[in-house]
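Example record

The entry below shows one chain as it appears in the dataset: sequence first, then structure tokens.
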Amino acid sequence: MFDIFFTDRPIVDYRATLTADRDRIKRFNQELVARGMVKAVNKIYVSLAHSDQDVDQTLEIFAQALTAIASGA
């Protein structure tokens, strides 16, 4: 399980997570959905049921969504 935070500060504890840009994570989640991927609002869960192809597809969709966020799309 992991999560993504858009912030310019290190995430070292719960309080640090509160500095994250909530609008940006919302946009990131919307970009994922637009590409056919749904993730939990706060966490990303990986399981042994995911194949290498699933992981590769996830990484590609994440890269596309991050590119869209970085470009301001």
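Notes for this example: The mean pLDDT is 90. Residues 9 and 16 are 7 Å apart (CA to CA).
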